[in-house]
Amino acid sequence: MRKKKVGAIAIKSFALLVVLGTAYQATAQDTTTPYPKMAPINQYLMTDRDAEIALARSAAPESISRDAEVLVLGRHGFETAVKGKNGFVCIVERSWTSAADPDFSNPKVRTPICWNAAAARSFLLRNIKRTDLILAGRTQAQTDEIIAAAVDKKELPAMEPGAMCYMMSKQGYGGDSVEHWPPHLMFYFSQTDPAIWGAGLPGSPILAFSDTREDVTTFVIAVQRWSDGTEGRLVTKSPVH
């Protein structure tokens, strides 16, 4: 069965690419995982709803996130906490949609992300379905297979033109593999040759990775500043609970 190896490699490669030349080093992973199974649901929830809303909004500049819809994680999946006005949707992702394989079940992971309307109507639906499946007790492998099958059957939509997201928060926690994401943007396409953007070539600021089973290519571009406008130097913060 397929595991999210491509995504995990991209996560590690992106972290190394962006922070190359700084004091930060991505830590090598052990052959075993400290999170062999899902923890109780309470460990994945944030007890302060307002704090989760604020953390979700920190993914994008305030000019965007202040009018965005905000979803928070409940016991049965993501639910609307704030209605939006501009088509953007912000959430705090958990480990099963945002972390490398060793952190797949890590209950400490909190990664703010804000999708534009095109991505909210396409890519976000996959993350919501994945979350529902994981919370219902499906394994990582089972979830991957169900998502891929839903894409094949067009039960989940293809990527809409212009789909993208902001991940520019100083806050949150990416997991033991990459504790904190550098500020960046991501652009989603149905299966596309990364070469059309020059992704991954020497000197190129663009990283790309493709998931052939889910028919999506993601282009990643690092940016200079965090969502609050400060210089985008890498920071390491304690996990958010």
How does this structure look, described?
There is one protein chain. A hairpin with a 4-residue loop joins strand 7 and strand 8 (216-222). With 241 residues, the chain is α+β, with helices and mostly antiparallel strands. The protein is globular and about 45 Å long. The protein has one domain. Helix 6 (123-135) packs antiparallel against helix 7. The longest helix is centred in the first third of the chain and has 15 residues, at 5-19. An eight-stranded mixed sheet has the order 2-1-3-4-5-6-8-7, with helices on both faces. It is built from seven helices and eight strands, in the order H-H-H-E-E-E-H-E-H-H-H-E-E-E-E. Residues 1-31 have low confidence and may be disordered. The two termini are 33 Å apart.
Spell out the key features of this protein.
alpha+beta; 26% helix; 241 residues; disordered N terminus; 8-stranded mixed sheet; 7 helices; single chain
